[in-house]
Amino acid sequence: MSAAVYVLSTVTGYVLTSALLLRCPSLLHRRKRETFRSRHISHRGGAGENLENTMEAFKHAVKLGTDMLELDCHLTKDEQVVVLHDSNLKRSTGINSYVSDVAYTVSPDTYCYCEGGEDKSIPLLKDVFEAFPNTPVNIDIKVNNDTLIRKVSELVIQYNREHLTVWGNASNKIVKKCHKENPQIPILFSLPRVLLLLGLFYTGLLPFVPIKEQFLEIPMPSIASKLKDPKRQTRVQRLVTWLSDKILMRKALFNHLTSRGIQVYIWVLNDEEDFKRAFDLGATGIMTDYPTKLKEFMEKNSYPNNFT
């Protein structure tokens, strides 16, 4: 009987302590220093309004007042860091070549031109840094390449942007390399670390565990029904979407993380219903393909932009 009382009291103490620290993490953890906070994030510069990852898209988003530019990086054959999502040029240029197999050039008869839009050039990362010295940039390192990671770090240092940059990838190997290369640049949660985060949260261990990441970027699973006709989804697909949404979209989790200085970004949201839900859940910011639409929503509903 005494053993049962001991176990019960231990479990009760653990649950109560976990609940307390979940709500008041400052009792155990020092809040991470935020050099910027982003509410309005332009995915690939605003891929729904301009040609993605181009200077035209970035200029448009910054002119609107976006808090952050999200972009993707690859390395060319001559070791230039270019802003491009795909590893192959087929979708953007019609040429079936890998970025890593071609040299960067600004000549009009070569590979650095995209289809559609007035601005068709593929920019260098340094072009973005030079054009927007005060705008936070979210960098997705698209391939596990030590030289690419080193080059991006060197550019961040050269343009004095360690306090205005976050980088990473879904791959844990890439994120680890990024952090080892330059621990002064904040990192994103990789996919394995997101899964670990959820495991810690649902077991009550999260409030006790230190976290090195400063940014959590996750999708809102419920938008799957808007990307694909629900009638064409199987019952299993609908169940997985519903369950994933219930697991990921947790206000208590978001509040705990933001209280520890970890920003939560939800992507890629493109309509007012999802904008509202994300902010109501306590997300720090929203990543969107339509920066104008998000700006109008925020102004109409009196959501503040970045902080000073």
Please provide a written account of the structure.
The protein has 308 residues and is of the alpha/beta class. It has a domain at 35-72 and 132-300: TIM Barrel (Alpha-Beta Barrel), CATH 3.20.20.190. The protein is built from twelve helices and eight strands. Strand 1 (40-43), helix 2 (55-64) and strand 2 (68-75) form a beta-alpha-beta unit. The mean pLDDT is 92. It has helices at residues 2-23, 55-64, 90-93, 125-131, 146-158, 172-181, 191-203, 224-227, 235-248, 251-259, 272-280, 291-300; strands at residues 40-43, 68-75, 81-83, 137-141, 165-168, 215-219, 263-267, 285-288. 41% of the residues lie in helices and 12% in strands.
> CATH top level of the domain at 35-72 and 132-300?
Alpha Beta
Shape: globular
CATH superfamily of the domain at 35-72 and 132-300: Phosphatidylinositol (PI) phosphodiesterase
> Which stretches are poorly predicted, pLDDT < 50 over at least 5 residues?
none
CATH topology of the domain at 35-72 and 132-300: TIM Barrel
Architecture per CATH nomenclature, i.e. the level-2 architecture of the domain at 35-72 and 132-300: Alpha-Beta Barrel
DSSP helical segment count: 12
- Round the mean pLDDT to the nearest integer and report it: 92
Helix content: 40-55%
How much β-strand is present in the residues?
5-15%
* Sequence of secondary-structure elements: HEHEEHHEHEHHEHHHEHEH
